[in-house]
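Our preliminary data section would be incomplete without showing what the modeling component actually yields. Below, a chain of 161 amino acids is followed by its predicted structure, encoded as C-alpha cells that our downstream tools consume directly.
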Amino acid sequence: MATLTVWKFDTSDGARLALDLLRKLQEQQLITVRDAAYVYWEADAKRPKTKELGKLTGAGALGGAFWGLLFGLIFFIPVLGAAIGAGVGALAGSLSRAGIDDDFVKDVRESVTPGTSALFVMSEHAVVDRVADQFRQTGATLVTTNLSVEQEELLRETFTS
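Predicted structure:
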C-alpha cells in the first residue's frame, strides 16, 4: 500500500534541505519513494511556490497533473472561489475518492503558511518508526494519509497518460 506523507517544516527552505535525508533513507532501503514534490512559502510572498522532484524519483508515478491539482486545491483554488470549472471539480472528486479528502486538504492548508515549507512524498515499504524518527529530528511535523491499493490505482489512472 502506498502512503502519501506530508512533512511540514517551520522554515521556507526546510523541505528542500530535507531532500538529502529522503535520498539517504531511500539508499538505506528504509523507504521506497514513488513520487515527491515540495512547496515553499517565503515569509513575504503572497503564495507558495512548488517543485516536483523528478530527479529524486525518476519519471514519477503520478506526474505534474497530480501535483498541480493537489497544490492548486490546497493553496490556490480557495482564492478563485466560484471560478472553479466542472473539470477541476471532477478531478477534485477523484482525489477525494482516492483518500485525499477535505480534512487532509484543510489540515495541510492550515499548517503550511508564509515562512514554512512542506515535503510531499508518495512512498511504500517504509520502515515507519525509523523514517519518522529521522524526519522528527529535523523539527518536521507529520501530516499523512494512507492510500489503499485501489485508491493509489485510481490516482494513477486519473493523473497519468
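Confidence is low (pLDDT under 50) at residues 79-87. The first strand starts at residue 3 and ends at 9. Preliminary results of this kind motivate Aim 1 of the renewal.
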